[in-house]
Design a protein that fits this description.
The protein starts with 10 loop residues before the first strand and ends with a strand. It has one domain (11-104). The radius of gyration is 13 Å and the shape is globular. The chain has 105 residues and is mostly beta strands. A hairpin with a 5-residue loop joins β1 and β2 (20-25). The protein has strands at residues 11-14, 20-25, 28-33, 38-41, 56-61, 67-72, 77-83, 97-104. One of its GO terms (biological process) is cellular response to starvation.
């Protein structure tokens, strides 16, 4: 799993049950399996009302579900993302991370 050259990981978490981990940096969040195979990435929208994350400060998995919470430098929100395993299952289709704002920090 690669980030762009010269970019460091600013957040990391391992799921307590599933063999997956999440990494975050200024380019977004990536989730991979135990072999390093990329499973999903965040997809930022475009336009005036699109969510802006900035550099990811923290990622944390839900203890029982394939969901990750994230905070960032540009947002006062905690965003919750779920790993979509089926195309059309909301938030961006297969291989993506669907999500939205959770609550104010």
């Amino acid at each position: 799993m690669d980030f762009a050259p010269g970019r460091s990981i600013t957040a990391f978490d391992v799921h307590p049950v599933a063999p997956v981990f999440a990494c975050g940096n200024e380019s977004g969040i990536r989730i991979a399996d135990g072999h390093g195979t990329l499973l999903a990435t965040t997809r930022y929208g475009e336009g005036f009302l699109a969510q802006r994350m900035g550099s990811i400060n923290c990622v944390a998995f839900h203890p029982h579900r394939l969901a990750v919470a994230a905070t960032s430098s540009l947002s006062p929100w905690i965003s919750i993302y779920t790993l979509n395993s089926e195309a059309g299952s909301g938030g961006g289709g297969g291989g993506g991370i669907g999500g939205g704002a959770g609550g104010v920090v």
